[in-house]
# Entry
Amino acid sequence: MSAATTPRSSGPFALGDRVQLTGPKGRLHTITLREGGELHTHHGVLRHAQLVGIPDGSVVVNSGGHEYLALRPLLRDFVMSMPRGAAIVYPKDAAQILAEADVFPGATVVEAGVGSGALSLWLLRAIGAGGRLLSFERRPEFAEVAEANVATFFGAHPPQWEVRVGDLAEELPRATPAGSVDRVVLDMLAPWECIDVVAEALTPGGVVLCYVATATQLSRVAEYLRGTGLFTEPDASETMVRGWHVEGLAVRPDHRMVAHTGFLISARRLAPGAVAPEQKRRASKSSYGDEDVELWTPGAVGDREITDKNLRKRVREAQRAASARLGGAAGDEDDEGAGSASPARID
Ligand SMILES: C[S@@+](CC[C@H](N)C(=O)[O-])C[C@H]1O[C@@H](n2cnc3c(N)ncnc32)[C@H](O)[C@@H]1O
# Structure
């Protein structure tokens, strides 16, 4: 990344820097330091000049005597607060995407759709000045939001970033020679519609990674990748990050977390003509029918199945509890509202 498009990430604050101020009651303000600039709040006035030349992480006091902690925003702070057109890739998933897709300095990367540009920012940082990011977005307004967000973060449009408005399936073959792309990251509703052009664009050994929100999309893209015969067996995962409250002896997981964002699925492009050796037994089917219910029985999905003997025991226990309850005899069951007026029935 050229000096002109690298936000300064350390050293004393200078004019042009973005600064995140945490004020009274934890209220956040993000400002860009300007000659003569001032932050006006109902707590008083803070002059930008007070910040210029002092170290990152300093505390400054405004005209009303209120303290503000001043820090340069991290990329994750920036993406979580920037304007959004479409839903963004969260930092926890972006970090995992960079690792699983093996995005490296100097890589040629294709991305679609651009959405709000959150993932573009992470990709641009990872490929560095010697890389190339080609991002596709079919909605022009989203591309505009993304371009503005990326320019705000880097201070200019990074020279190694090209945004093309259009559908990836149509535009990619026009934009890159076959076999010239190192990595492809797809964040869109129907990535399987783009896998054929992605296979054409990827270099042998290159990685395609799709981020999808639902299990049914995950299944469909996995079967599509397999069906082409052009990729290695796909790897699928999801990333859950649980924050912890760590204070004195009160050390415990946070009560709330972002439980679901999306799934990642990745595979590598085989060399032309190569056929991957069979690694494991493949499910015989890839579309759903009534008989597929068999594939979801406890044994088939890896859960322990109850033995007939144990099952008969459970039936006797349940029936004893029901007759104690319904017949009014003393029993162990005393939950409020448990049971019903109708006779117990075992199907
Ligand atoms: C969830 S958003 C992407 C968010 C983005 N990764 C981010 O982190 O900000 C999905 C985007 O994909 C775009 N899209 C869907 N299918 C596409 C296709 N075939 N070609 C190009 N863009 C597509 C949509 O218009 C939408 O803006």
Summary: The chain has eight helices and 15 strands. The pocket of S-adenosylmethionine is lined by residues 86-89, 112-113, 115-119, 136-139, 142, 167-169, 187-189, 194 (CB under 6 Å).
